[in-house]
Predict the 3D structure of the following.
Amino acid sequence: MEANTLKNIFNEFDHKSEYISHSELNSGHINDTFLVKTKEDRNYILQKINHHIFKDVPGLVNNKVLTSEHIKSKYPNLSEEALNQKVLSFVKSKTTDFYYHKENGGFWNVMIFIDNSVTYEVVKDTKIAFEGGKLLGQFLNDTSDFDSSQLIAVIPNFHDMSFRFKQYKSAVQSALKTRLQKAGKYTKLIANLKEEMHILQNLKENGEIPTRVTHNDTKISNSLFDKNSKGICMIDTDTVMPGIIHYDFGDAIRTICNTAAEDEKDLSKVEFNLEYYKAYKKGYLEKTKDSLAETELKYLPLAAKTMIFIMGLRFLTDYLNNDTYYKTNYPEHNLDRARNQFKLIESFVEKTL
């Protein structure tokens, strides 16, 4: 994007700073994100929100701001500057909203950049796994008394297992015969796991586990660390919405504990990293053991299995639908992703029983 265009968008916000330059950050897969440097001793994150994926951008931004403001209230003794370096802080536009809508140019929001911070694309040791678990646990603690009904469902039915099975069933019925044959081994596995994979959703619907504020994108790259690998905060809160803690915990484990890339074809390389699981869970429970209900704690292991399964189901569904959702690089890319997740379930069961 041209500097002048981005500078003009940045200046639609009430940051009281003077733009110097910007650079694009490539960590996200949905939004466009830029680091903006200014003459003042403060830098910013300028983000274009993908309104094709997120249908209610004002509601999404409101979710992020309400959540951050609530977390800030937990640290009354910190100065504003210190809070801005510990919690995501959003800047109002000159129209007093926390976003700017440019005609034919999308929706934008601005955050204060947290200095001297780092992110990790993958976990390489148990220290990072432990600190990542603590960060997610702290996020849960800080939002545990926030009324999640104030938040919109940014992506409806995101982790709804019945909805995902309905999509899968429809895909099976309309799939090409060749693709259905190649997926045959996994259609049987899915049928065998169907009842178990609905346990968490049934508990949620029956009110046996509480609905809370959840992050819903807990891969390790959405945890922010300082230069000494100590956790600072959770970032990328576009998908914050009401949910159950098992979705967050399970998806973090799914992404952290796979010893191979998500689309690794050689399934002998796909194993569940038990040490990372133990370290992440230890950090998580260090922060949450006094705030989680007994039923929530009981089903944490099932959370990991469920979230691995739901991604395998979604990849296989897309394969049967001729790859209409996920980007693919070759004809069996989604099938390889599904195989990968189902092998990870197998390894998880072997190592945790």
